[in-house]
Specification:
single chain, Jelly Rolls, 41% strand
């Protein structure tokens, strides 16, 4: 079994446990112009971070050095990968627990948030055990 399959088992168990919100010790709460986030779970090669996105914001094209996946909780968000013109449909409250596709490291992506804001988890998937977990916001390549 490869590290992505192992990570998906961890993510599935996290969802089955009701997506517990546990702040990871010794990690900061990150506040930006468009979000507030905190690490909520770290297990083996997976880091799960809870995001509260501010209403009517946009996160411009960027990438991360790890495989990434998103678990939608609530609100309206529209993601796009590679370029803004390749936008996906809007996710809404009715898409609760929608687990998005896994994007390889350094995949350019961004998203827009609707008028009610949005809540989701980002899932970092690494090829090795994570010993020093960090926010995806801090492991961000692109314009702020």
């Amino acid at each position: 079994m490869n590290f992505v399959d192992s990570a998906q088992r961890i993510v599935k168990c996290y969802i089955e446990r009701g997506c517990p919100l546990q702040l990871v010790p010794n990690t900061p709460i990150i506040v930006t112009d468009c979000s507030t986030s905190a690490l909520s779970w770290v297990e083996d090669n997976v880091v799960i971070e809870h995001y509260l996105m501010h209403p009517n914001t946009e996160v411009v094209m960027h990438s991360h050095p790890f495989y990434t996946q998103t678990l939608h909780i609530s609100g309206e968000v529209q993601g796009y990968a590679h370029q803004r013109s390749m936008a996906a449909c809007w996710l809404r409250d009715s898409d609760y627990l929608y687990l998005g596709p896994i994007h390889p490291p350094n995949t350019q992506h961004g998203f827009r948030v609707g008028s009610q804001g949005a809540q989701f988890f980002t899932i970092q998937i690494w090829p090795h055990k994570v010993t020093n977990p960090q926010s995806a916001t801090l492991l961000y390549h692109g314009h702020l």
